[in-house]
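Incident log, support desk, overnight shift.

02:14 A customer reports that sequence design results differ from what the structure should imply. Their input is reproduced verbatim below. On-call engineer (initials T.W.) acknowledged and began investigating.
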């Protein structure tokens, strides 16, 4: 599997500061910001700062420090967003996963019951 990262994708532009975002949390390795089209009261996207396209790309090639930093950002987002009652984490990948933006991102959605996991 080869990954050909496109540095013109919208999240790369957000990371470079070329497009504004509503930042929820940031550390050395990850940025978390509100989704522009929220599907729930809480809908935060957590992205690595490195050029990774998908979860499997990130899991294979990101350094341990990047992976720990990313997961620490997930923990902070859950804490900041008051998700004690639960949440769903979604990582869409490539065509079958209906991924729109080719920079790895984890959707953290919650703030209401999320329904069953898969539809259709
Ligand atoms: P995907 O289908 O790739 O998993 O989800 C991409 C997500 O990025 C969508 O939920 C979409 O609303 C969000 N999104 C797309 N463009 C922007 C943007 O410019 N800013 C923000 N904050 N979110 C975006």
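02:41 Re-run completed on a clean worker. Output:
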């Amino acid at each position: 599997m080869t990954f050909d990262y496109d540095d013109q994708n919208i999240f790369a532009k957000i990371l470079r500061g070329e497009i504004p975002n509503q930042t929820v949390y940031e550390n050395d390795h990850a940025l978390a910001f509100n989704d522009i089209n929220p599907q729930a009261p809480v809908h935060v996207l957590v992205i690595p700062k490195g050029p990774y396209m998908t979860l499997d790309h990130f899991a294979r090639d990101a350094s341990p420090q990047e992976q720990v930093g990313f997961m620490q950002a997930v923990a902070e987002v859950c804490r900041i967003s008051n998700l004690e009652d639960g949440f769903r984490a979604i990582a869409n990948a490539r065509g079958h996963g209906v991924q729109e933006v080719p920079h790895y991102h984890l959707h953290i959605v919650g703030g209401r019951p999320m329904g069953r996991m898969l539809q259709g």
